[in-house]
Specification:
Elements (H helix, E strand, L loop, with lengths): L3 E7 L3 H12 L4 E5 L5 H5 L2 H23 L12 H27 L2 E4 L1 E6 L4 E8 L4 E13 L3 E3 L7 H4 L16 E5 L3 H13 L2 E5 L10 H13 L3 E3 L2 E8 L13 E7 L2 E7 L1 E4 L3 E3 L32 E3 L10 H17 L11 E4 L4 E6 L2 H6 L4 E7 L4 H5 L6 E7 L5 E8 L2 H8 L7 H5 L10 H8 L13
Parallel strand pairs: 1-2, 1-6, 2-3, 6-16, 8-9, 8-14, 9-10
Antiparallel strand pairs: 4-5, 5-6, 7-15, 11-12, 12-13, 17-18, 18-21, 19-20, 20-21
């Protein structure tokens, strides 16, 4: 069995596959080591299953909401068959895992090992020890490589709240395996995972309360928080701000019920006073942490940060010149397309001396609520912090024809520009298809508002709203005719 390679990769997610594909096309030998389910977070427990369930919940919500939005349409929605819904989600996951991961690995022909990998050797001569068990005995294989890539991703994180572990809680992973819709749900957190999961379960039939320390989507424009709070309130989701959970307990199970069926009680400091919140389940969505604890990084002098992340250069090289890191394990933006870009860059920097840096200037970001949040570039606060005098326009969706015919004007498009040059520095939207607006926004950053206002835009598309937002810098858009 081969034990010497050009590239040894720990992990099998987006960054691992991108690196393996690029290294293989460069003629390099590759081995990929996975201790768990092949394919990484995105396909197994992240993007794919969560967005599949979000789409299902939206379909149910549309059935409930269609009569109010569209005169003449009568629809109803029954209770959710959760086991069947989860089975359908799992079928999708397994199909994609087979087609986009297992089959791809076979087609490129790199080697795969199943086991727990940890570094050994010395900083100048690092090796990997891979431990695997077949149910009878444990074997240890030593693998040497010219370069190593750590692509172990991240896992959901829960803070040390008193009683939380004993009471039991859901994460974004375990919530997607529930066999029934909880009657009530507490969500701790106000970031993208918390928002998506809160709306998902509310639309499936749960009574949802969100406890958030500051504001919803706190890293985005303040208009996003305000709009999302209104949307969630309209859908019956309670949001409690300035809330810091201090303890968690679980009531005794009702007579005759299985252990653990009692309600969860979260005690929280709310604006300086203690308050209790009760629900059948509590979902902790307060962030993720890199998976590095079993890698023995100290042995090969790989530095880590306070969250456990591998500290890397702009070229994604660690403090050990032969060891690289990519994806969530670096604590860089947690998107699978970032991980994939990382993987490709690592292979090129390791084997072609490209010295290409990772650049997030035009990185789009999307939260799959409904309406969605899409953004690219700088926020108004970031522009001001950079010492740039900015000019902004916030275009309510009531001025976007596509939103009007959709009968859904919840949201806005905000454009941030340099006040002196007119250069567009950032774009944020809360709208249906906001992700597509963010993707389009990638291509207008650096252009002027005048250039975008005069560009072609097809009528009755949501992206027409970008052109209208640009026109708002010089025109009262309430006085525009269609297409004008």
């Amino acid at each position: 069995m081969q034990t010497r390679y050009d590239l040894a990769i720990i992990g099998s997610g987006g960054s691992a596959f991108a690196a393996a594909i690029r290294a293989t096309t460069l003629g390099k030998s590759v081995v990929m080591i996975e201790r768990g389910t092949f394919g990484g977070t995105c396909v197994n427990t992240g993007c794919v299953p969560s967005k599949a369930l979000i789409a299902a919940a939206e379909a149910r919500h549309i059935a409930v909401d269609a009569t109010a939005r569209f005169p003449g349409i009568a629809t109803t929605a029954e209770a959710v068959d959760m086991p069947t819904l989860i089975d359908g989600k799992q079928d999708l996951v397994e199909n994609l895992r087979g087609e986009k991961y297992l089959d791809i690995a076979d087609s490129y022909g790199w080697h795969v090992r199943h086991g727990e990998a940890a570094f050994a050797g010395t900083p100048d001569a690092p090796v990997l020890e891979v431990r695997s068990a077949d149910g009878v005995a444990e074997t240890v294989e030593t693998i040497e490589a010219a370069h190593y890539l750590v692509a172990t991703g991240s896992r959901p994180w829960a803070p040390p709240i008193q009683g939380l572990e004993e009471a039991g809680y859901l994460t974004s992973t375990t919530a997607m395996e529930l066999s029934e819709v909880p009657e009530s749900l507490l969500v701790l957190g106000g970031g993208y995972v918390a928002l998506e999961q809160a709306q998902l379960f509310a639309r499936l039939g749960s009574k949802v309360t969100v406890l958030v320390r500051s504001r919803l989507a706190s890293k985005e424009e303040p208009e996003v928080s305000k709009t999302l709070a209104e949307v969630l309130a309209d859908e019956g989701i309670r949001v409690v701000r300035r809330t810091v959970p201090t303890s968690v307990t679980r009531d005794s199970a009702p007579d005759g019920a299985p252990d653990g069926d009692g309600q969860v009680v979260v005690t929280a400091d709310v604006s300086g006073g203690a308050q209790e919140f009760r629900a059948d389940q509590v979902l902790v969505a307060l962030g993720r942490r890199p998976v590095t604890d079993t890698l023995n990084l100290e042995a090969v002098e790989v530095k880590t940060g306070e969250l456990g992340q591998i500290v890397v250069t702009d070229q994604l090289r660690s403090s050990n010149p032969r060891i690289w890191a990519a994806g969530d394990v670096t604590a860089h933006p947690e998107f699978v397309y970032v991980a994939a870009r990382h993987g490709t860059l690592v292979a090129e920097n390791a084997f072609t001396d490209a010295e290409r840096p990772v650049d997030y200037t035009r990185l789009p970001r999307v939260t799959f609520t409904s309406p969605a949040i899409g953004a690219v570039g700088m926020t108004e606060a970031q522009v001001l912090a950079a010492g740039i005098r900015c000019e902004c326009r916030v275009l309510p969706l009531e001025h976007v024809p596509r939103a009007l015919v959709n009968r859904d004007t919840r949201g806005f498009i905000k454009m941030v520009a340099n006040a002196e040059t007119g250069e567009i520095l950032g774009l944020t939207a809360v709208a249906k298809d906001a992700g597509e607006l963010a993707a389009a926004g990638v291509h207008i950053l650096g252009k002027t508002t005048t250039e975008v206002a005069e560009a072609w835009a097809p009528y009755l598309t949501m992206t027409e709203g970008i052109r209208i937002a640009a026109k708002a810098f010089t025109t009262d858009v309430s006085k525009l005719s269609c297409c004008a």
